[in-house]
Specification:
The complex is a heterodimer of chains A (114) and B (112).
Chain A: E1 4-6, E2 11-14, E3 19-25, E4 30-38, E5 44-50, E6 55-57, E7 60-65, E8 70-75, E9 84-92, E10 101-104, E11 108-113
Chain B: E1 4-7, E2 10-13, E3 18-25, E4 31-37, E5 44-50, E6 53-57, E7 64-70, E8 73-79, E9 87-94, E10 102-103, E11 107-111
Classes of the chains: A mainly beta (114), B mainly beta (112).
Amino acid sequence: RKEVEQDPGPFNVPEGATVAFNCTYSNSASQSFFWYRQDCRKEPKLLMSVYSSGNEDGRFTAQLNRASQYISLLIRDSKLSDSATYLCVVNSRPTTDSWGKLQFGAGTQVVVTP
Amino acid sequence: DTEVTQTPKHLVMGMTNKKSLKCEQHMGHRAMYWYKQKAKKPPELMFVYSYEKLSINESVPSRFSPECPNSSLLNLHLHALQPEDSALYLCASSPRDPYEQYFGPGTRLTVT
């Protein structure tokens, strides 16, 4: 089983609509969670960190559900420029002597159409 | 300023060549990383430097040799690569390992 799993999509979204997708993680000791976006043939860019209380940045809202071990990303009022692959990234801290490392999901593709 | 720079942007090399990729950040970050990314796959961690010391080597073949000359610079020395090593090589930095990472634009490597 992969440590971080995402629906690969694509999610085809009309411009102006709302889209949401999840990411599940297998290690209950995971401590830090992030969403990155990656455009075709470009580097991943940090979109937002995900906090326990949930957080919002403009049209983007991230939620964390520790009980069910998933994080979600919701995009409101989708723009054409939101078309990208969204990578879910999770840090696990396996022992007190190790800070762990980031685990990347395979990404969810979002395509916003006019 | 969250900028990580990488040179060169593109590199074509033969299997007998020796080349180096360079990465630089001036954000005072103490952790730096090399990743390899193939098309339609997530980045795959290769090496982690924390406070200029190699802390993680993900069983990368010895034809890839990392070097961290100082806290701002990270190099990846390449020698006797194989065509399957063709990929996008990404450098990233982080205030400390393993928190949020900031990626450079990458070097697109083709091995012929």
